[in-house]
Write a structure and sequence with these properties.
single chain; 123 residues; mainly beta; 7-stranded mixed sheet; 4-stranded antiparallel sheet; 11 strands; globular
Length: 123
């Protein structure tokens, strides 16, 4: 099983990026998915989560209204559209698959993790 995250990069404040995370090795259509991030010197934190059906989503307060999580179960892929990016969004972003079908925000609720993709927002 492998989760491959992509789409990170360097962007100016106010810009946008779209992260993708494609899973291979098995289908995760019955499981919730999430995005987390870790800035230098800080702990990994929750960003967004989506239920297995895609009908429910949850966002950290810091990204609410700017980020949108979505998924395509046919492609076994989860996305994170990031708009109005701020320098404080700079971090390594990780995708993850939950142990359950509904949305969860705790790291320990996720048992499969991608390798991370760097997002850098310049001021």
């Amino acid at each position: 099983v492998q989760l491959q995250a992509s789409g990170g990069g360097l962007v100016q404040a106010g810009g946008s990026l779209r992260l993708s995370c494609a899973a291979s090795g098995r289908s995760f259509s019955n499981y919730g998915k999430g995005w987390f991030r870790q800035a230098p010197g800080k702990e990994r934190e929750f960003v967004a989560a989506i239920s297995a059906s895609g009908g429910s989503t949850l966002y950290a307060d810091s990204v609410k209204g700017r980020f949108t999580i979505s998924r395509d179960n046919a492609k076994n892929t989860v996305y994170l559209q990031m708009n109005s990016l701020k320098p404080e969004d700079t971090a390594v972003y990780y995708c993850a698959v939950s142990r359950v079908s509904y949305i969860r925000a705790a790291i320990y609720d996720y048992n499969y993790w991608g390798q991370g993709t760097q997002v850098t927002v310049s001021s």
